[in-house]
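User: Working on a comparison across species. This one is Protein-L-isoaspartate O-methyltransferase from Poritiphilus flavus. Can you predict its structure so I can line it up against the others?
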Amino acid sequence: MQDTLKHRGMRNKLVDTVAGKGIKSKAVLEALRAVPRHLFMDSGFESHAYQDKAFPIAAGQTISQPFTVAYQSELLDVQKNDKILEIGTGSGYQTAVLLELKARVYTIERQLELFKKVKLFFQKMGYRPKKLIFGDGYKGLPEEAPFDGIIVTAGAPEVPKALLSQLKVGGRLVIPVGQDEQQMTLIIRKSDKEFERKTYGAFRFVPLLEDKN
Ligand code: SAH
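Assistant: Here's the predicted structure for Protein-L-isoaspartate O-methyltransferase from Poritiphilus flavus:
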């Protein structure tokens, strides 16, 4: 599979759609324009890649909807060289968008099948996160903390405390919170002990699962 003019044309339309839904960040829209989403999907779904929809990937998980990826990326407000932790690598699509935004990305996936697949895929495509980790992102990544930003791409029943403690002062955590339906939530660390919490629209994500061992 490759990236053709036809794919680029469909991608331009997708970017227009996402912009039309309210995404304003030029940097985020350009990142979406740059990432060949069809290559992150199983070939059976390739023809759907430029619809603004989530689709199944392996292990019962989904590649997030482009609008959702753009929305979370905009809330994260990534600056060049920011150290970003992503929980839920999945297909790697959101990871690739963060890399296009010139972040230093640390990303964690708990499904072995997806982890192995995305590892090979990143190598093939030349995407270079600082670290791609197989494990439980519920605990964050204390050995690399603190982070300028943390993004959770699965629905969390509540905000994991470990993630709050791994934010820099001024750092941002973007996390969908809720059981069946999630409220997009932005938490900004104002000082060592103070956190500001803002909530946005409703979304539906696959669940963030905690490995209790
Ligand atoms: N950003 C991904 C979204 C994939 S869906 C994409 O656009 O493709 C969410 C992912 O979170 C799934 O792959 C799921 O396996 C993973 N996940 C769920 N709980 C997790 C946890 N505790 N730690 C790490 N990954 C987790």
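For your comparison, note: Residues 61-64, 87-88, 90-91, 93-94, 108-111, 114, 136-138, 153-154, 206, 208-210 surround S-adenosyl-L-homocysteine (CB under 6 Å).

User: Helpful, thanks.
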